[in-house]
Specification:
The chain is built from twelve helices and seven strands. By secondary structure, the protein is of the alpha/beta class. It folds into two domains: 112 residues, 3-Layer(aba) Sandwich (Rossmann fold), CATH 3.40.50.10490; 152 residues, 3-Layer(aba) Sandwich (Rossmann fold), CATH 3.40.50.10490. The structure holds fructose -6-phosphate (F6R). Fructose -6-phosphate binds next to helix 1.
Length: 294
């Protein structure tokens, strides 16, 4: 769920067209019916105390799955260690969404070691190098983007299945760091429904900032779709930005856009005077859920 679950969705986007086996990301209490003793089940919860993840984990145990737990501790860490499953620890003491680098790389490497995929070491190294090298220019860019979004509704469009999770990450970081709503959709699906709804109701129609995430693997026809949509719906938004991924490997390209989005969310928080660490409503909801039995 949340800051932990996004690591799995990013992995899913990267591997979707490469894997010979089905890969499900489960963001709920229940696991799919097809999960069996032939399944590798990876429970990812930074705190180790997220009830949906614990419920899915308990179901996976009952079905006799091969289990790996990725966590900084909590109930999941204790239970998985006691049961003799592999527990891969990540460093404690961060907001889960800030631990993405740890959660994502641990998950990917765990899948590699389990023989599910291979050959991502170079991509990981390139991603880290690129993020270090481009930090300053991306921060400057993020400030400009945040200024455009300030006071408006950001709508983030992904243009390939690899970028879907990146758009989700932008939305979640806008929500949690900056405390603002954000809408996401993906192309080309958008073209078969949302194109008609764009700009209605009129307010916030004109207060929308469209952020289109693009990658060298975005199909030329999808790019043409995007430009055509932006032309047809010109009255429905204030500004449209096209952001291209950077880097060579898929992994580096994905993280170039993730880091830019993270920086934009923090810059937006600064402009709005919101403490980017504060997520009081999530904490309050978790307290209420813990008190309510059943
Ligand atoms: C992100 C955040 C939430 C949690 C989510 C699940 O910083 O606080 O999105 O990630 O509530 O909790 P964990 O990650 O501990 O399983």
């Amino acid at each position: 769920m949340g800051g932990s679950g996004i690591s799995a969705r990013i992995v899913h986007g990267l591997l979707l067209d490469k894997l010979g086996v089905p890969l499900f990301v489960c963001n709920d209490y229940d696991i799919p019916a097809a999960v069996s003793s032939e399944t590798l089940f990876v429970a990812v919860s930074y705190s180790g105390n997220t009830e949906e993840t614990l419920s899915a984990y308990a179901q996976a145990r009952k079905r006799g799955c091969c289990i790996i737990a990725i966590t900084s501790g909590g109930e999941l860490g204790r239970s998985a260690a006691k049961a003799g499953y592999s527990v891969v620890p990540v460093p404690a003491g961060m907001p889960p969404r800030a631990a993405l680098g740890h959660l994502f790389s641990t998950l990917l490497v765990s899948l590699e070691r389990s023989g599910v995929c291979k050959g991502h070491q170079r991509g990981l190294e390139e991603a880290v190098r690129l993020m270090r090298a481009r930090r300053r220019p991306w921060l400057v860019r993020a400030r400009t983007i945040a200024k455009h979004i300030d006071g408006r509704l950001p709508i983030v469009y992904s243009t390939s299945r690899m970028l879907d999770a990146v758009a989700d990450r932008w939305r979640c970081q806008f929500n949690e760091n900056a405390g603002v709503l954000c809408h996401t959709n993906s192309f080309p699906e958008h073209n078969h429904n949302e194109i008609v709804g764009m700009g209605h109701p009129e307010n916030p129609g004109r207060d929308v900032v469209v952020v289109a995430l693009l990658d060298r693997e975005t199909r030329p026809r999808t790019r043409y779709r995007l430009e055509s949509v932006l032309d047809i719906t010109e009255q429905a938004y204030h500004l449209a930005m096209r952001l291209e991924s950077e880097g060579r490997s898929r992994l580096a390209r994905v993280f170039s856009l993730i880091m830019l989005g993270d920086l934009v969310s923090v810059e937006l928080a600064r402009l709005l005077g919101k403490d980017a660490m504060e997520i009081d409503r999530i904490d309050e909801l978790k307290r209420r859920m813990a008190q309510k039995r059943g």
